[in-house]
Amino acid sequence: MILGLVLASSSAWAGVKDSDCLECHGDKTLVKTNSVGKAVPLFVDAAKLKLSAHKTNACVSCHVDLTAKHPDDNKPGAPVNCALCHQRQQGSFAASVHGKALKAGHADAATCRDCHDSHEMVSGNSPTSPIYFTRQAETCGACHDKETREWRASVHGRAVASGSHDAPTCTGCHDEHKIRSLKSGSLMGVSGDVCSRCHASERMNTKYNLPADRVKTFFESYHGLAGQYGSTVAANCASCHGYHKILPSADTNSTVSKVNLVVTCGKCHPGANQEFSQGKIHVPPDGQGGGADFDSWLNRWVRRIYLFLIFATVGAMFAHNAILFVKKTAARLSSTARPVVRMTLSQRWQHFVLAASFIILAVTGFALKFPDSWVAKVLCSNEPFRRWTHRIAGLVLLAVGLYHLIYLLATRDGRKLLVDLFPVKKDLTDVWSAVRYLAGVSKEKPRIGRFGYAEKMEYWAVVWGTFLMGATGLAIWLKIDVTQFLPRWVVTVATTIHYYEAVLACLAIVVWHFYHVMFDPEVYPLNTACLDGRVSGEWQHHEHPLEQIETAPGRPLSDGSSGYKEN
Predict the structure, then answer these.
(1) Helices 453-477 and 383-410, interaxial angle, to 10°?
(2) pLDDT tens-place string over residues 288-341
(3) How far is CA 505 from CA 120, 192, 218, 462, 515, in A?
(4) Of all residues in the chain, what percent are helix, strand and coil, respectively (each to 5)?
(5) What is this structure's pTM?
(6) Which of 433, 497, 422 is nearest to 465 (CA)?
(7) Which domains does the chain have, with CATH numbers?
(8) DSSP 8-state code for residue 551
(9) 99-157: per-residue pLDDT in tens?
(10) Cβ 188 vs Cβ 107: under 8 Å
């Protein structure tokens, strides 16, 4: 850099003084017309030059392309190469929208001089500088008039006008030398890198009495989660609040004002109505905190009820199965003969489709909630793939549920299954007997038929869960249609129910169902009835002594009989 200046100074300009240049450039009327027809003044104010950041530089330090014959040789001076002294800044500028435009041949794109001035350049901290925080809008507005007018009317522009150094100016959002366009930026680029600079700052939120959770709650909303998951079309901060003319929601000109929300939401959600637009984006995580409005109040109570249900239900399940596991481990049983038909082929296929769709729904659902988890990475962090896989699996689950209903009503095996699974008074007695047995008060466990309280509880929980998850899932998926007839809070509460019901279902499957079909010492590592429908006579007699058993053809019980019945 210094070598370049030395060589430039020792070139054909040797002996030429700045005063020689000012003989012409001291004339205020000296101008030239550039390639796009714009008049460019060539006047240099000597007094201001002496006060500028370049006051120690000679003319020849920057204008290295001209010779002592200038201007008689009729060769116009080339743009000054600021990189001779400012290499790092020039490198950033070259990667900016301005630098790329110049490289593409747009001669009217902004250069260093357009923003910093040249001969009169002063520090950016000086109120007379074109890039001083109160003058940036004026400088950028020379080319970006519309954007400047919108910014001046915004909360940011008003704050700067009032003298706030903290309020974002043009370079506060678009950066300084590497000026970037944000309209085509990613969700994370705008919300994560730009808006979060101020709105995630505890100092800024405290100093200016701003809500402290706006960034956090946005990234925990569907839009924020989808963006972190890789979506390029999910809304970011600017999608709702605007880019330059950002106004408070109380201002009727704001894009997030109640009078404009339908239009704002409709940009991404065609058909959105007033009810749909009332949904909140900045909802405290999982319904915590929030306002005093009905939506927030109802959502908080739904969350509290579900938390209680989850802890109470899963806690009781875990205690029940932990004690049962210890007792059954002490009395290991083994059996090789499995002549008893426990599940028909149709029932096994229904069970397989149900299990497969449930697992896919759990994986794809929690991948959205936890986009940084390994679960999301298994799906290649692809939001469209996750979303449609989840929806298709949901439709499959509903389809197998509908088929099962037809099976129960239209087939002999189905009708018998429904009768055997229907709760009866004896189930209450069995529950009490089980409590006494698990507590060690009684040595006899309940004697049950084809299905006991455990199977019946799980079966009807699946029926209820399928209906509830299906209804809430469709409400979330078809939210536009739902809000044509129902209040917007229906979708909000449906989302909360869908999540917590999924948590409850998954934990119940792991703690309750997996124990009975996998970890129970009598069937470990798996009750293979789900594969071929058969169980051993010993297991059947031990677990379901009151059932009339039908053995598989040609498969006698271990005692040589074809079956037995106990009353």
Answers:
(1) 130
(2) 555 667 888 888 889 899 999 999 999 999 999 999 888 876 655 444 667 888
(3) 71, 34, 27, 8, 14
(4) 55, 0, 45
(5) 0.69
(6) 497
(7) 182-282 (no CATH), 294-327+343-527 (1.20.950.20)
(8) B
(9) 999 899 888 889 898 898 888 888 888 898 999 999 999 999 999 999 999 999 999 99
(10) no
